[in-house]
Write a structure and sequence with these properties.
5 helices, 5-stranded antiparallel sheet, globular, about 20% strand, single chain, alpha+beta, two-stranded antiparallel sheet
Length: about 190
């Protein structure tokens, strides 16, 4: 698996890369994370079952889109795919730490700038993705309130109901959320 991943990194970056060292790192609950290094380079690699490749592809596309806004620092995706019986996502390695008393404020301002970027006058995204292992439905909507009510709250209610949740006023929740948020323009 690691040889295939190293080969993919080499093909994508057009720089020779051989993994000299890999070590497990924390940072998630559904994937295995590794720091892989070699040739003076280091990458963060997420590993999961082969059937999770679409999750990694959507994450990579989302990170590329966020990176393109030049608002907040996110790791650049390098490559993703399937090797042996595992799917993987290779990301730029970011060193954390070294912040100062202004770091959280700066991050908050940059996050706010990210949310001010508008790629469309519609709401949603061109593909579904995940939050952890939970699917996140991103069907495009003309209304932010309807998108949030149906694709975020409504979908979570459906998942909860499938797992035994009982919501006696469920049929009133989604229209109420749409109405409450109808004047909010993010």
């Amino acid at each position: 698996m690691w040889t295939q991943i190293a080969r993919h990194i080499t093909q994508t970056t057009e720089k020779p890369f051989e993994i000299e060292k890999s070590r497990p790192v924390s940072g998630g609950c559904i994937n295995q994370g590794y720091a892989v290094s070699g040739n003076g380079l280091i990458y963060f690699v997420k590993i999961n079952q082969a059937n999770q490749e679409a999750m990694f592809a959507a994450e990579a596309l989302g990170l590329k889109q966020i990176h393109a806004t030049k608002t907040i620092r996110v790791p650049e995706p390098i490559c993703w795919g399937i090797a042996d019986k595992s799917s993987y996502l290779v990301l730029e390695w970011l060193e954390f730490g070294g912040g100062d008393s202004q770091s959280w404020e700066k991050m908050g301002r940059n996050l706010a700038r990210l949310h001010q970027v508008s790629l469309s006058d519609r709401f949603g995204w061109h593909c579904n993705n995940t939050i952890g292992s939970t699917p996140q439905i991103n069907t495009i909507s003309n209304s932010w309130a309807d998108f949030f009510a149906h694709q975020r709250i409504g979908y979570q209610l459906r998942l909860a109901k499938e797992r035994g949740g009982n919501f006696p006023d469920e049929d009133q929740v989604i229209p109420a959320i749409s109405e409450i948020l109808s004047q909010h323009q993010p």
